[in-house]
Design goal:
Length: 253
């Protein structure tokens, strides 16, 4: 065996966290985009069906003292809509096809559980008179997403599920603290936006956060373990990954 060839073919380790994260993003990129889009549309089919045709009488969620203190902030709709970009980050960081499928199953279980709540216990926020606003996108939101399907807030549930997965990846890759703080702030902005634009009340947000955590924690524990592959690796196969920061087996030449 030629030593020079062995040296050339041997995978080099990641030099920065950026290399590891970038490799994860570009693996199965097209599949991730198509899968996330299809998953979102499937969820919305069930969501809007239950919104417009509740299976039983709809209960109004009570307002708390905190709800009365939070002013109407139509500009928060920007953070609200940003969820649909944010939810693509965590599946985008999955390395292998198996990891991606298992992540989808956990996220699917979360969404089905939320739809189950809406089916067996339809809820809505109480009638609230909002001041007029011409902020872009707000009229569309009010016309499409009514005040039903309130508790738990699926906006918050899937956001915290995503935030905990992103935090896991960034921490394991050794990403700078500033990026991890930015992730936490993005989640916080999304959660706050549901209250600021009066799509949800505090109890909805709390219930959504608990639901999201209830799925995020076991999903991070019971998932495939795969090693991080090096930037120069070719001939990739999920069963023969070189050892890396995420564990896994080293490939034998």
């Amino acid at each position: 065996m030629n030593p020079s060839n062995d040296l050339r073919l041997a995978p080099r380790p990641f030099e920065t966290w950026k290399e590891e994260v970038w490799l994860r993003i570009r693996r199965h990129f097209v599949l991730k985009v198509i899968g996330t889009t299809a998953f979102t549309w499937l969820f919305f089919i069930g969501y809007f069906h239950l919104l417009r045709q509740p299976a039983s009488p709809v209960s109004a969620m009570p307002l708390t003292a905190i709800d009365h203190l939070i002013p109407f902030q139509p500009q928060a709709i920007v953070a609200y809509f940003s969820l649909w970009l944010y939810v693509g980050v965590a599946p985008g960081l999955q390395l292998t096809f198996k990891e991606l499928v298992v992540y989808g199953l956990w996220a699917g279980g979360l969404c089905l559980t939320g739809l189950g709540f809406f089916y067996f216990w339809p809820t809505q926020i109480p009638p609230i008179t909002l001041p007029p606003t011409d902020f872009p996108g707000f009229a569309i939101l009010q016309g499409v997403d009514a005040a039903g399907n309130a508790c738990p807030s699926m906006h918050v549930a899937i956001a915290i599920f995503t935030a905990l997965w992103i935090e896991h990846f960034l921490r394991q890759a050794g990403a700078p603290m500033a990026l991890r703080v930015a992730n936490a702030l993005w989640f916080a902005a999304i959660a706050w936006s549901t209250l600021a634009i009066k799509q949800h009340v505090v109890l909805d947000v709390v219930a959504g956060a608990l639901l999201g955590v209830a799925f995020a924690l076991p999903s991070l524990r019971w998932r495939p373990r795969a090693g991080a592959i090096s930037p120069g690796w070719s001939g990739y196969h999920e069963a023969s990954l070189p050892a890396g920061r995420f564990g896994g087996r080293a490939r034998r030449n």
